[in-house]
Write a structure and sequence with these properties.
It is built from 36 helices and no strands. Helix 10 packs antiparallel against helix 11, helix 19 runs antiparallel to helix 20 and helix 20 runs parallel beside helix 22. The chain is an all-alpha fold. The radius of gyration is 36 Å and the shape is globular.
Length: about 650
Amino acid sequence: MPLRFLIRKSQRWKLNTNPCRFSPSFSLHNVSVNKTNNRETENVNEDNKNGLPPPPLAEGIFKSGPKLGSYKQGDSTFYSLLMGYADSKDFMNLESVLDRMKRERRVITEKVFVYIFKACRNAHFPDKAVYLFDRMAEFQCRQSVRSFNSVLNVLIQEGRFDQALSFYSYVVGKGISPNGLTFNLVIKTMCRMGLIDRAIETFRDMSCTPDLYTYSTLIDGLCKENRIEEAITLLDEMQSEGCFPNEVTYNALINGLCKKGDITRASKLVENMFLKGCIPNEVTYNTLIHGLCLKGKLEKAVCLLDRMVADKCVPNHVTYGTIVNGLVEQGKVADAVLLLDSMEDRGHRPNEYIYSSVVSGLFKEGNSEGAVRLWQKMIEKGFKPNTVLYSVLIDGLCRQGKPDEAKNILLEMANHGCIANAFTYSSLMRGFFEAGNCGKALQIWKQMEHNGCSPNEVCFSVLIHGLCKDGKLKEGLMVWKHMLGRGCKPDVVAYSSIIHGLCEAGFADGGLRLLNEMLCLDSKSQPDIVTYNILFHGLCKQNKISQAVDLLNSMLTQGCDPDLVTCNIFLKSLAEKLNPPQDGREFLDELVVRLSKRRRVLGAAKIVEIMLQKFLPPKASTWERIVEDLCKHKKVQAAIDKCWHELFG
């Protein structure tokens, strides 16, 4: 059989992982070759004996082709080498072949370059794709929108959004006209970057007709920026242009409306889907169920679950998990357990997150026996608990005042090969601190470090809070310095704990300095009402009532509203520290007026409620002001009557 026939035939054979090496089933023993080829084969065998990988056989035949007489090195054979190296991500040899083709003035088609660009994407080499795109002209290959889109997609897939937009501007500036796919890629990139106005401008300047993907991408981008009304307007425009939305388009809008809390419009949009012949999928139902749970409408969420099943749309773990979490957060743990059983009856096995949510809920409502029974039931069904589930059980036992039992679970956890995390250890430390056993809490801290678990901000906060609450301010400050030295940023709990320790030790001024430091940090470390109440108590304890009032005014300016604890601190101080003592009625009345002037109506109403509970009614003018702020004019009297009925009825 002629050698050239075997070579042509071999191009159709499957390649191995090594570029351009033929299948092992291929043999040359029936082919008559010259002595040079025999020596090459012997060298290959020798390399195999030495454990070295043989060179690509196809390339060896390729280089020796002219010596065989009738074989000619053609462009198609170069293409085979290029594709082989591209598939194996061997870009060094690939570029060597490219350089040789350039020297021999060979042509490479755009199709081959697109294939190489896809290989660059698979190899995560976006810069290589841009570099080779610029070299296309060297191979007499004209750049078109096809190769342009291919490289643009590589950059976007790799998250190089800024570079993608720069590349787009650069290529369009060279005279390549973008098509619909180009605009879709660019608009998608702009939406991901939050440049929604720029995306709309690009959309309006499109030189071709936008398609379903274009509209859906832009609508999703508008919804994520909470610009729902513009998204709905675009939906209407889309349909007037003869482009009809699909479930992806509707899901983006429904998700946006649910996040905004507008469940009514979201539900109407689902009805509109049916009218348009667009069947909701599991994403649609899950989104709407999640929105209903966020609004606390659990009964409607469960009804929607039943409708979902009736519509032959199979609920998944996301569906059940969302409703279970909603029920647990509303304190309806018994209903969550029933839904868990219903889930299993329908053939869905709960995952660890659903079990952990229900177990945690049972512990939070004080039903530790029910939590343990559910845990045992889970084990009996063959479910192997993981770190998440063990941590929930340990945290629950600690909340029930059983840290020693929780510590035994930690040992069981280690025996089953589950590694405890920072949450596990922080729960145990908190449990021992709350049980008044500071020594065991410190042992857990040492055990955590010994086991190689790096403490996070929560662990440090628990340790600092426990030490300061136990009166060990010096040790708490040492942990504070250690925390800062490790590069951990203290959160509001850690700051509040240190401030509490300083105030209890009579160093309220030091606490104020830390408060000023908190105000300069990010939202995670901003003081809350608990922090301020600690300082109010510390200042009033040192008879610095005027300084506490100044701090109260500062707190109002920061947008933090007082609560019942705040009122009690000041009422007690005014009654015990002043001469003559005051009942605090004027103080609270003035506080209501200040909140009302700042348009903090709910905060003002809360103080009025506290005043009435303490039989310190506000002035008539203050009462009138707050009621007018809370109620519409025609319903003022009804609101007043209802309020008096609830208080004294």
